[in-house]
Amino acid sequence: MSLLKGKNAIVTGAARGIGRAIAIRFAQEGANVAFTDLAVDDNAKEVEKIINDSGVKGKAYASDASSFTETAKVVDEIVKDFGTVDILVNNAGITMDTLLMRMTEEQWDKVININLKSVFNFTKAVQMTMLKQRSGSIINISSVVGVSGNAGQANYSASKAGIIGFTKSVARELGSRNVRCNAVAPGYIITEMTDKLPEEVKKQWEDQIPLKRGGTPEDVADAVLFLASDLSSYVTGQVLGVCGGMKT
Ligand code: NDP
Questions:
Q1: pTM for the whole thing?
Q2: Cα 176 to ligand 1 centre (Å)
Q3: Is the residue at 22 inside a domain?
Q4: In a domain, 191, yes or no
Q5: Which domain range does residue 113 map to?
Q6: pLDDT tens-digit profile of 4-14?
Q7: Strand 136-141 relative to strand 179-186: parallel, antiparallel, unpaired?
Q8: Which of 25, 191, 213, 242 to mutate to test the pocket of ligand 1 (most atoms within 8 A of CB)?
Q9: pLDDT of 215-225, one tens digit each?
Q10: Any catalytic annotation for residue 188?
Q11: Quick one: which of 22, 12, 131 has its CA closest to 74?
């Protein structure tokens, strides 16, 4: 299949985890993929190689998604290198979990800036390109806890709920120019981010999931592929749960 043949995509935070799986899936479907990460390290170079080996163009860029100026600069560079942008996936994200009682201002600001402000930064930076070409698909990676909330994750849940509000607003603003904006809300996905959870917490998550397993980065990548491709040409402003049926 070549669902994304000839399209140019940007994926943020794609050296590892879910972003990596999205970048690779896109390349398998014929998209050229520019991706960012804090540094172009061995992980990023490996993803770059896998993309290029698929017969499309792949390039890693070092950029902190929480910085407005760095983001504007890197998107300019990507547009110069790739010509245009058809798909943006705002994936970069972190957790700094602790109870509100112990949460510091720094833990709040860092999570909000990396998870939520980054989505503003990249969407702002690509919007003129997408508006001018009268097409585009923006996919923001939220989380089930952005819908339900979660004890110990007030900062993270707030950032992910903010992404949903942002997504629905952008869908309304840009829809008349055929630019779509949707969110994906993964549940418990097995990556380095969740690997650090205690074993009993992981077991509890799995027990609560109707499909009785944690998700894989590839499960998320397939849902993102749907939203990136023309298969979803009449879908905008939606939040697609990829959570094995977890209650939110
Ligand atoms: P990982 O921690 O495995 O990967 C996160 C990636 O984002 C890393 O490559 C990391 O780079 C990069 N990154 C972190 N900060 C920045 C930054 N400031 N600028 C650019 N890149 C950055 O996370 P996941 O793959 O698990 O998560 C991906 C997304 O999915 C996140 O938004 C997360 O909140 C969301 N999500 C994850 C779930 C899960 O269960 N795993 C569930 C729901 C949502 P580096 O390698 O340099 O650290």
A1: 0.98
A2: 31
A3: yes
A4: no
A5: 8-185+218-242
A6: 999 999 999 99
A7: parallel
A8: 191
A9: 999 999 999 99
A10: no
A11: 12
